[in-house]
Amino acid sequence: MHSDPRGAENRGPGHAAHAAGRGPSASSTPATATDLSAARDALVSSSGRTRRLDTQALRDALVDLFDFWLTTEGSDLGIRPDSGFALVAVGGLGRREMLPHSDLDLILLHDNIDPETVSSVADRLWYPLWDAHIRLDHSVRTVPQALQVASGDLPAALGMLEARHIAGDQELSNLLIGGVRRQWRTGIRNRFDELIEMTEARWERSGQIAHRAEPDLKSGRGGLRDVQLLNALSVAQLTDGMPGLGPDAPGGGLAAAHRHLLDVRTELHRVAGRGRDQLQAQDADEIGAALRIGDRFDLARLLTEAARTISYSVEVGVRTAGNSLPRKGLSRLRRGPVRHPLDEGVVEHGGEVALARDAQPSKDPGLINRVAAAAARSGLPISAATLTRLSDHAPELREPWPRQALDDLIVLLASGPAAVDVVEALDRTGLWGRLLPEWGAVRDLPPRDAVHTWTVDRHLVETAVHASALTTRVSRPDLLLLGALLHDIGKGRGGDHSVVGAEVADQIGTRMGLWPSDLAVLTAMVRHHLLLPHTATRRDLDDPATVASVVNTLGGDPLLLELLHALAEADSQATGPGVWGEWKASLIRELVRRCRLMMAGEDLPAPAPIDPELAQLAEDGTMHVSLDPRPDGRGYTATVVAPDEPGVLSDTAGVLALHGLRVQSASIGAHAGSTVNTFVVVPRFGAPPAAGLLRQEFVRARSGDLDLLAELEAKDRAARESAPSARPERAVPGTYSQAPPRLIWLDTTDPGQVVLEVRAEDRVGMLCRLAGVFEDLGADVRWATVTTIGSTVVDSFCVDLSTAGTRASRERLEQALLAVLPTPEPKNPPTAS
């Protein structure tokens, strides 16, 4: 047995490993490459006197084993501190992550030594390893040659960033390791785009670990290669290597996720008996049992959690690195990013959602929801620093939640695909679980049947995404979105998930502050979310007992039927390809139609009664404009009493929008020749304007001195120009129109009136624009009720039939209204053939 020329720092398994009880005894230290292979196999199989090592101990023992053998063999070959040779490990051995059947990646460095001598040393080192059937990836270079390779070959450069000295001339190894790292730091600006393109191509080839039945643990998205990418960005001093996910994050953070993947891949090598990166279904139970995780479902959940943690970390790391790239030339002279307000205490900064300088997370419980809603509306990611600050300082929301916090959650859910990344960011950093503690039971929970594409938690979010496109089909879009988010919340708890889920949804809805009637609808949605698809596809719809059974189960509630119809579609679309089709849609549609015929008709919209004090002002002919705080603390009440003339409604709504007051609800009516309009408004930022200013602006608008639509358009243009990160085609920076607008004509009992209900996504100045259309076309609005639910408006206008009674007049009115309503962008724009 040869001595170790480097002393205690590189002790072999006969020293440190044996002392730790991890490896063979000193007397069994391998003397030849064949002995090395046999010793490795003994460690992996735990044969003979060697007890079975856990995965971390096995990796450590393998590193010790190969380090010791290479050190001693190198010494025999003349690879000593003063020899002009150095042996450097890259890959798994370089990272000290040697797996049972990993390749051995080595670089033999020399200091311009005679080629024949170099060739002789290399052959005597490589050939015994090949003969022992140890997979070897090798190269022989001088330091300048190695640096030249690293400068032109990105994969080689990434490998050398993990280089570690094994034997020989330490200074020679240091020249390579330090040179590669300096070269990487100074050249990262020119190589960053290539690095990201290479990474994305790898993801495209290997898919996502979190959502694959047989994932590639090394190259898949969220895999071990991504951890190495983060390390490379850290070496370039563009990230801190652990972007915001420490041990307190769900699942233990990035370090724990990395360790879990290493453990599974180590056991995969042991089970397969060879180097393999793809986890096959038939091996999952054995690996899960060996790691004491459980069955294949438990293993899948662990892998999903780890992969999503790593994937999120890479997303943050790449974004942070891109923002940190050094500038060149004249770009160095440009001003830094400017902060643009998005909401109270929330700004856009450098293409990310961040906290305003004066934001105080510890004193603002609703800030988490507000940040999430702003990110979803703007389509911008939340900065890692903001998430960390919120995680460290934001308090729990009081119970019941403030109304604005619930509204912000609805805005988030209504944002469509943008909600996925926002929820993922909140969940990976522990903030989503703070809002919904019950989420832990479904987080990363794998589906029990192959038809489901997503984990249960992701399926819930995807269902909300699909439901966001259906919000204008229902009268209560908020309940639809909440039902979509919670319909499978009972899974992972044992028992019937619909029954259990209804109880959990009741707890969540109570905490959110839902009205008792709304809470009853939400829990019924969760309890019966499978009723329509199961009945429509499994029972005879021509049997009256089938329809009666559904109606009785729903208590004859047409609202619940409407919501369950939309939820069934969203749930099916979010399940997987082919689950929702015309056959299933037509069956459910027919079942719903027959149920509606059996149920009592829904109540028509009706005007709200006029407050007696305001009625007296109208009778006196007094013009009145006021803005008062509401008793419940939820915003302000804006009241306008003025002569009933064309343009009053659009002018009033325009003045409110111009001064940053968002209309939550409104009651529009007339009395004694005056219009009496009452609005519940919430300031978009800061404190509201003084009532005197609103009155002054209203007078200017009525006199024609203030063009409100022009002012609103100018405000929108300014917002676009000051926010370069926003998409230029938007009226204001933000995400709009997941659901198409819908216009519904409803006949009333009064033969002289018809009600037009407008359902659409909200935008700045919406009511002003709608009222302007009615006024331009001479449609007399008798009364109106306005409601904003999250990011959706449900507005009912009672119109005089004399101005909207014919088919042609209705079509003109509909076309004009649709022209000012946000409409969805095409999901699949046509491409040139």
Automatic annotation (TrEMBL):
Q: List where Low complexity composition bias occurs.
A: 11-27
Q: What is its EC number?
A: 2.7.7.59, 3.1.4.-
**Domain HD as annotated: residue spans:** 456-557
Stretches for region Disordered: 1-33
Among InterPro entries, the record links this protein to: ACT-like_dom_sf, ACT_dom, HD/PDEase_dom, HD_domain, NT_sf, PII_UdlTrfase/GS_AdlTrfase, UTase/UR
Q: Which coenzymes or cofactors are required?
A: Mg(2+)
Checking Pfam families in the record gives: ACT, GlnD_UR_UTase, HD
Q: Which reaction does it catalyse?
A: [protein-PII]-L-tyrosine + UTP = [protein-PII]-uridylyl-L-tyrosine + diphosphate; [protein-PII]-uridylyl-L-tyrosine + H2O = [protein-PII]-L-tyrosine + UMP + H(+)
Q: Which UniProt keywords apply?
A: Hydrolase, Magnesium, Multifunctional enzyme, Nucleotidyltransferase, Repeat, Transferase
Where on the tree of life does the source sit, at the highest rank? Bacteria
Q: Which CDD domains match?
A: ACT_UUR-ACR-like, NT_GlnE_GlnD_like
> By its UniProt entry, which SMART domains does this protein fall under?
HDc
Activity modulation comment: Uridylyltransferase (UTase) activity is inhibited by glutamine, while glutamine activates uridylyl-removing (UR) activity.
> Where is the segment annotated Uridylyltransferase?
1-341
Asked if the Swiss-Prot or TrEMBL record annotates the protein with the keyword Magnesium, the reply is yes
* Ranges where the ACT domain occurs: 637-713, 755-829
Its job: Modifies, by uridylylation and deuridylylation, the PII regulatory proteins (GlnB and homologs), in response to the nitrogen status of the cell that GlnD senses through the glutamine level. Under low glutamine levels, catalyzes the conversion of the PII proteins and UTP to PII-UMP and PPi, while under higher glutamine levels, GlnD hydrolyzes PII-UMP to PII and UMP (deuridylylation). Thus, controls uridylylation state and activity of the PII proteins, and plays an important role in the regulation of nitrogen metabolism.
User: Record's HAMAP family?
Assistant: PII_uridylyl_transf
The domain section of the record reads: Has four distinct domains: an N-terminal nucleotidyltransferase (NT) domain responsible for UTase activity, a central HD domain that encodes UR activity, and two C-terminal ACT domains that seem to have a role in glutamine sensing.
Q: Which family does it belong to?
A: Belongs to the GlnD family.
Q: Which PANTHER family does the annotation name? A: BIFUNCTIONAL URIDYLYLTRANSFERASE/URIDYLYL-REMOVING ENZYME, BIFUNCTIONAL URIDYLYLTRANSFERASE_URIDYLYL-REMOVING ENZYME
What is this protein's name?
A: Bifunctional uridylyltransferase/uridylyl-removing enzyme
